[in-house]
Write a structure and sequence with these properties.
Number of helices: 1
Shape: elongated
Protein name: Flagellar assembly protein T C-terminal domain-containing protein
CATH superfamily of one domain: FlgT, C-terminal domain
Radius of gyration: 20 Å
CATH architecture of one domain: Beta Barrel
Strand order of the largest sheet: 1-2-7-6-3-8
InterPro entries: FlgT_C, FlgT_C_sf
Distance between the termini: 15 Å
Strand content: 25-35%
Number of strands: 8
Structural class: mainly beta
Organism: Companilactobacillus futsaii JCM 17355
Order of helices and strands: EEEEEEEHE
Length: 139
């Protein structure tokens, strides 16, 4: 599957649809044309390339031969969010410092890695999504 059209900064059209088994809510990864090569540290042999992940999108409107997919939406807890209007959360927030209210709710645990070997090659790409980019359905 490929990106067939870019509607706006949050919506794209994928060149596959209901006839290809796509359903509303299916997730897709948009992959760039060339990833980062990984070499075996012992032999120097190429192990392949890491995907150049540009974005994850979710199918919102399905047609027989195409799908409109949108970027994921995330709520950031803080002033004005629905969390602040939840009575229990509001009472809990009163017991914290003002800066704690703005902290993100979920973070990844840190792995104990050799920091000198961090390459950053598997992060989301900052390259723009383009017509023709590969689209892969997530399992």
């Amino acid at each position: 599957m490929r990106i067939a059209k870019i509607i706006d900064t949050a919506s794209v059209v994928i060149n596959a649809g209901e006839d290809n088994g796509i359903k509303k809510g299916d997730k897709f990864q948009i992959i760039g044309k060339k990833g980062v090569e990984v070499l075996d540290p012992e032999t120097g042999e190429s192990l392949g390339t890491l995907d150049d992940l540009k974005a994850t999108v979710i199918a919102s409107e399905i047609y027989p031969h195409m799908t409109i997919a949108n970027s994921e939406m995330h709520e950031i807890p803080g002033i004005g969010s629905s969390e602040m209007f939840n009575a229990e959360s509001f009472q809990n927030a009163l017991g914290t410092s003002q800066m704690d209210i703005f902290k993100k709710r979920y973070v990844h645990d840190r792995l104990n890695v050799d920091k000198s070997q961090i390459t950053g090659s598997f992060k989301k790409s900052n390259k723009p999504i383009q017509i023709g980019d590969l689209v892969v359905k997530e399992n």
